[in-house]
């Protein structure tokens, strides 16, 4: 079973992306995917697409939350279902960042997608009709993957996850484990003693590379490291020995200190972006249509050299389009000059 909620992002896009990409919630960023952009620079790349919008508006992006019932799905399947839902909602025309959070009692996805599509630069329309479309897509994906589906009663508007969880008395196992570990750290002299005390409190301990714990009625084990940076085995040992204090949140500039020159070709993903491919295909069709029309009217096709020249002209236009986006990103991030000669040449299958 999965429930959905969507809301607009009007002024805090970078903060929203920071939140959903939190390494403590995404298994050290292992559960992050993106489409049409790089998640490190998504706010800037969204900004470029928004600057091309045909209609102006207040929405920068939309934040779709996709929550599953406790114990019904593992994080890998949840992430894949989230990717399928994101592709269905955006129709392959909007940049998006998808993350799966595993820090609560229930696994849930966060999808933030640009409010403007990169194909014809129209705005996404969010209303009751499109929301119920999202719910239907989610329900279909749940059925396809053998999950249950919430069936609202007659005249019902459906349930939020909080309502569903309250009815099912869902429990945050990670929250309870955090409380237990925090209470024991000042009382024990070693990590091994802490595990013994947890075991005495009813937790089942699974040793290994990543120590895991499970409460008496909990279905799946919880790795200590998924509780946050302060709950890895090494961090807990350091806290017990008094060599470590709780880590404070780094300032935003440090947490998102991504250098755009990591490799801008990869950052903007020019060679994989469906938007660029769509743009190039449309422009490549124009000379073909012109040639066909000329043949129909005058009975004469343009020469091969003429077509080759037109093709090279279009490739140059594609380079310029890529560089415009790169230049926009650079201006926003304050990186060095990026000349058009560095733009990758896009090739398409025949």
Topology (SSEs and partners):
Elements lengths: L1 E8 L3 H8 L11 E4 L6 H10 L9 E8 L6 H16 L5 E6 L6 E7 L13 H17 L16 H7 L5 H12 L6 H10 L3 E3 L5 E3 L7 E2 L9 H8 L11 H4 L8 H4 L6 H25 L5 H30 L17
Antiparallel strand pairs: 1-3, 2-4, 3-5, 4-5, 6-7, 7-8
Helix pairs in contact: 2-12, 3-4, 11-12
Oligomer: single chain
Strand order of the largest sheet: 1-3-5-4-2
Radius of gyration: 25 Å
What is the overall pLDDT average?
77
Q: Quote the beta fraction.
A: 5-15%
Characterise the protein shown here:
The chain is of the alpha+beta class. Helices cover 43% and strands 12% of the residues. It has helices spanning 13-20, 42-51, 75-90, 128-144, 161-167, 173-184, 191-200, 233-240, 252-255, 264-267, 274-298, 304-333, and strands at 2-9, 32-35, 61-68, 96-101, 108-114, 204-206, 212-214, 222-223. A five-stranded antiparallel sheet has the order 1-3-5-4-2, with helices on both faces. It is elongated.
Summarize this entry quickly:
This protein has 350 residues and is of the alpha+beta class. It has 12 helices and 8 strands. The protein starts with a strand and ends in a 17-residue tail after the last helix.
């Amino acid at each position: 079973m999965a429930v959905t909620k969507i809301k607009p992002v009007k002024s805090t896009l970078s903060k929203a992306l920071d939140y959903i990409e939190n390494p403590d919630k995404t298994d050290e960023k292992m559960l992050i995917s993106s489409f049409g952009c790089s998640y490190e620079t998504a706010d800037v790349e969204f900004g470029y697409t928004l600057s091309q919008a045909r209609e102006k508006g207040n929405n920068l992006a939309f934040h779709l939350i996709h929550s599953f019932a406790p114990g019904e799905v593992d994080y890998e399947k949840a992430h894949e279902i989230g990717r399928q839902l994101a592709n269905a909602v955006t129709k392959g025309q909007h940049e998006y960042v998808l993350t799966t959070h595993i820090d609560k009692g229930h696994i849930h996805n966060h999808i933030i997608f640009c409010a403007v599509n990169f194909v014809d630069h129209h705005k996404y329309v969010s209303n009751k009709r499109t929301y119920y479309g999202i719910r239907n897509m989610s329900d279909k994906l749940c059925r396809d993957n053998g999950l249950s589906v919430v069936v609202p009663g007659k005249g019902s508007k459906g349930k939020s996850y909080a309502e569903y969880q309250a009815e099912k008395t869902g429990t945050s196992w990670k929250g309870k484990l955090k409380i237990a570990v925090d209470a024991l750290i000042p009382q024990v002299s070693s990590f091994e003693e802490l595990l013994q005390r947890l075991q005495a409190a009813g937790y089942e301990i699974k040793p290994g590379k990543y120590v895991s714990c499970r409460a008496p009625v909990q279905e799946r084990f919880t790795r200590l490291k998924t509780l946050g940076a302060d709950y890895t085995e090494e961090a807990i040992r350091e806290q017990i020995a008094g060599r470590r204090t709780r880590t404070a949140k780094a300032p935003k500039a440090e947490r998102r200190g991504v250098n755009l020159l990591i490799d801008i070709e990869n950052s903007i993903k020019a060679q994989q972006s469906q938007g660029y491919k769509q743009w190039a295909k449309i422009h490549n069709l124009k000379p073909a249509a012109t040639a066909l029309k000329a043949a129909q009217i005058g009975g004469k096709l343009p020469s091969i050299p003429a077509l080759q020249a037109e093709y090279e002209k279009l490739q140059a236009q594609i380079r310029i389009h890529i560089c415009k986006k790169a230049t926009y990103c650079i201006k926003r991030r304050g990186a060095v000059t990026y000349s058009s000669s560095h733009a990758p040449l896009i090739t398409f299958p025949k």
